[in-house]
Design goal:
Chains A, B: One of its GO terms (cellular component) is mitochondrion. Chains A, B: Belongs to the phospholipase D family. MitoPLD/Zucchini subfamily. Chains A, B: GO terms for molecular function: RNA endonuclease activity producing 5'-phosphomonoesters, hydrolytic mechanism. Chains A, B: This is Mitochondrial cardiolipin hydrolase. The structure is a homodimer. The first copy, chain A, is α/β, with parallel strands linked by helices. In chain A, 47% of the residues lie in helices and 19% in strands. A seven-stranded mixed β-sheet of chain A has the order 1-7-6-5-2-3-4, with helices on both faces. The first copy, chain A, is elongated, with a radius of gyration of 22 Å. At the A-B interface, strand 1, strand 6, strand 7 and helix 9 of A face strand 1, strand 6, strand 7 and helix 9 of B.
Amino acid sequence: MSIYTRITSYVCVLYLSYRLRLYVSQMLSTMGPKVSAMALFFPETQVTAKELFETNPDVLTAHNPDSQLCQLLSVLKSCTKSLDVCMYCLSYEPFLHVMEELSRDSNIVVRVVTNGDKGRHTSGSTTGEEKFPSKRLIQLFKKGVQLKVISMADEALMHNKFAIIDNSLLINGSLNWTENSIFNSYNDCLITTDPRLVFAYSQQFNEFWSLD
Amino acid sequence: MSIYTRITSYVCVLYLSYRLRLYVSQMLSTMGPKVSAMALFFPETQVTAKELFETNPDVLTAHNPDSQLCQLLSVLKSCTKSLDVCMYCLSYEPFLHVMEELSRDSNIVVRVVTNGDKGRHTSGSTTGEEKFPSKRLIQLFKKGVQLKVISMADEALMHNKFAIIDNSLLINGSLNWTENSIFNSYNDCLITTDPRLVFAYSQQFNEFWSLD
């Protein structure tokens, strides 16, 4: 084998392995969620978006795709198999709307763990809409969203605010899924596909789910 | 060059590159924080640990190294350059103790952003100790911890609960650094060295820090 043939075959092998890696990475990127790590910070300043939502919960995606809220909702909408939500306060309609839409697809299992200490939700300055389980949440339950209300002793809260999509993407942070948290307070929301973190949070969710 | 010489040199190169990678990864692991991803879940059930802390804030590390609180404090203690804390409620002594210890070392810059809406901290069932800036926090400030209190309009909170260590490790989640959050409520705490997330949160911290 001459030196030229050898070099040519090396180049061919290199090129083919490059194409193969490209193909595999493209395959993976289309299979899984589009995001592997993202941080969103609130309050959302695009108040127009908030007003748009009041007329049509779905309109925001089309109008303000770059808004923090839209990005978060888009990640939720990428769900294809399961959505596990563990949320202290969960009352903002766009989130409930997405959960309702997802659970309409019989292949997607939507499970919600929320805090059941009504006393705490009505104290202070939180509004009545944040009482759990709210009428709206019970409505979702009747439509197929699985619901678990965790009641702890006085002063003790199910204070988590995380969600797991398709057992492969984790959302956590300080953000409750309420209108006030999105538009009025400083909050952070972290999104990651790190399998170690997704696994740990999934375990925690399943522990909550198996509680009597 | 015979085929045997060639094979021997290939094997040597492979072995040397393996040793080099091993050396570099060991170097990196000793240079940076020991953890790259971790999830901690509360409430901490080791009440003994809580009692030990009351007599000596440092004793827990020695006695219960596997407890959730210890692991979190150990990560904080790994700080060598800077600790940026952005915390809605920050009153539990072991955390303040670590911050105080770190800032004693003049090479470590400890900066704290906290919520200044006193009204909210005294409403509901939160205790007086969670008022900000608390006497204890002012004491830390006098000892070198840099402090920024963010006051927002009524109903609006600086609700974040995150910290950045040495600009290379991020802690976030639902956990406030209070005794009640650690021992009585369900909370999650995520630790990651993902540079994309660390960078995004650092930017957010610096935005808070540059606010008038």
